Task: structure prediction
Amino acid sequence: MLKSWVQCSVEVQNLHAVRTNPAGTSNAELSQADARMYQLDITLKRGHNLAARDRRGTSDPYVKFKIGGKEVYRSKTIHKTLNPVWEERTSIFIEHLREQLYIKVFDYDFGLQDDFIGSAFLDLSSLEQNRPIDVTLSLNDPHYPDEDLGSILLTVLLTPTEQQREGTMLMRKSWKRSSKFQTQSIRLSDLHRKAQLWRGIVSITLIEGRELKAMDPNGLSDPYVKFRLGQQKYKSKIMPKTLNPQWREHFDLHLYDERGGIIDITVWDKDAGKKDDFVGRCQVDLSTLSKEQTHKLELPLEEGEGYLVLLVTLTASAAVSISDLPISALSDPKEQEEILRRYGLLRMFHNMKDVGFLQVKVIRAEGLMAADVTGKSDPFCVVELNNDRLLTHTVYRNLNPEWNKIFTFNIKDIHSVLEVTVYDEDRDRSADFLGKVAIPLLSIQNGEQKAYVLKNKQLTGPTKGVIYLEIDVIFNAVKASVRTLMPKEQKYIEEENRISKQLLLRNFIRMKRCVMVLINAVYYINSCFDWDSPPRSLAAFVLFLFVTWNFELYMIPLSLLLLLTWNYFLIISGKDNRQHDTVVEDMLEDEEEEDDRDDKDSEKKGFMNKLYAIQEVCVSVQNVLDEVASFGERIKNTFNWTVPFLSWLAIVALCVFTVILYFIPLRYIVLVWGINKFTKKLRSPYAIDNNELLDFLSRVPSDVQVVQYQELKHDPTHSPSKRKKNNPG
Result:
């Protein structure tokens, strides 16, 4: 989920970035503090005789490590055992040795609240430096101090970090004396940059499973697969009633460690209304794979039966970077010329996945919301493009921060949406949301510094503050058009679905509006049959005779082409038939109010976690309503020129289809289509099935997304509370 990822991102800042002192301390006072930074290398080995928390006398244990109240690492879950073996390694940066390492062990319960097994503390100041130490920690529970809960075995290595010491010196040099509540932010440290920028891309194609274990009474399973690399996770689709599933799914993960990493893979059997069954697990050690080469892996499942077949490719990182103003790729004429040449028409068939180049200048924000009791905030920015996420540094105690950072991304899909979110950093808890903007790449005007009004979490209305951005997009139109007909990239970190009365109502109304369009069309046709209006019925009768007598298949795309052209001329002539959807906007605001109430009452509604079966059904129903409503709205918005690029692409496609159907007999077209379908798997055994029309429509925004991506006009006298009062009920 986004919230958990932002918390993790703030932890990276807290642990990796050099921090300024918020209280205006002198250089002498700083030198007296413990300025040295330490790296703590932890090897989580195993657990011994852990407490049983499941009915079968076992547990599914995992471990959380915390420092300063913040979670810094979570281990994988070992299923159905009281003596788990992890053998996991992680590195944590420590600011003060007086902070204790807090270890908590939980039993994982799918769909329910995880059970607490026990906890322990490790005093970092007592560790000998520069030497590995084996540590055995006995678990305890304050509520049951006499109960034996088992133990955890670790190996720890504490070393001073020279790079952090240099960062501390940089902090001392750049420190300027100021008032009590004002500080000056320092430059992003090299270590912070290293923590954000990935070293490569791991491309994974999940092909199939073979001879999996039967988990259901009918002798079959409903398998799906979970992948995890560090904090990145991916879940495959569910293949019903099979022991030899064919997934053929492709996704990419970021590789942060130059030495590689371990991909944890678990296979599960989906069970409606109860906890999913564990089928088996396996791992892929990326350090053993050669780069720039595709590896076909047949992995036997441990603790289960069968195999998984994967294709894994390690490639160099895309052009993602962070720099300070005024240094930028487009400011250098030679680099700019190289970028324009890379995405020119002459290279339209070179590296089809590299669609374009995006440069984002995060300049400053003004008038932000005060999130701290002092009347100030500690704002930082998260810049996201699909699964690529980068952060600015934090500007402490400031409602008008200046970041002056430049971020560059490779564009894989020109229909992606750039999201810029402002958070308030809180050391002792997760970051507070201050505002957000969502900007479709196709709506960006290059080189223009623009003030974007920050929106609320649902992107339906304004919140306090504006952010100044300057964005440049360079892309190859041919590559972008081809990419439009390919599957859309799935976002790995998304907000978890939950039951919402307003969401159900909103999706029902949206679907009802789409269905009513069809019903009204049927009524209109019936009125022509009933001769309610003789002139209209006569015209419809003549048109029916003419079209039926002269009908050819090419007239279908031709009629759609004429409809697109008609709406286009209406728009350019000023007769825009698109209506601002205030109904959807009001429903989204009501939904946000309900979410706020749910957050406040979440502790009082703990019993909802136990109604997992009901929740799954309700979530499925509301998601189906959303899909149906979105499908109808996307078709409508294609012809309404909501996204001109897609409408022009539809015109080109319809023109091509019209010409093909006009000049080529239908039997030849069907013959070519059938030969292609029958030989596709023979020509490309690992091809991923897709529907070009559905992939195209997935790029067209629904009415809800149109409202969310709508840019708000900056009005200093305008406030969210005034807007809500003025909204029609």
